[in-house]
Amino acid sequence: MDKSRVSLGLYRVLAYVTGVFLLGLTFVAMPAKYLVGETARFSLMPAPFGLEQWFGPESPLMLFIAMPHGYIYMVYVLVVLWVALDRRWSAPKTLGVVLAGTVPILGFVVEHRVVKTEKAKEAAAAAAAQEPAAAG
């Protein structure tokens, strides 16, 4: 298997995993830590009865969502750099793809566009490689 395809496949997987963890961090873990519970910094509502341990500054959701997200994002950045070097992306494009992993939902959109563009380039290269063979 071509290393270029492996790097792009790994990028796709990590883009989705990073995006899912970022959504969990943004819409579950952070609100649970800062917005819900009597001891939360910006408490907007009390924690549901019987589930108080999941909310407030000591929320275990930070351990289960925030910590893995941080490590996964670091691996995501390394894989984006691998893809960028392998496919000779410009620095602005590489930076844009890296930063897309920090904005909820945007990572999914950018992943779709990147893969669509890269597959089109692969198809064009394959077609160009077959033209001389057919003419000869």
How does this model look, in words?
- With 136 residues, the protein is mainly alpha-helical.
- It is 73% helix and 0% strand.
- It contains four helices and no strands.
- α1 packs antiparallel against α4 and α2 packs antiparallel against α3.
- The mean pLDDT is 88.
Short description:
With 136 residues, the chain is mainly alpha-helical.
List the helices and strands and how they pair.
Blueprint: H1 3-34, H2 61-87, H3 91-100, H4 106-135
Note the main attributes of this structure.
mainly alpha; 4 helices
The N- and C-terminal alpha carbons lie at a distance of 28 Å
Spell the H/E element sequence: HHHH
Poorly predicted residue ranges: none
Spatial extent as radius of gyration: 21 Å
The percentage helix is over 70%
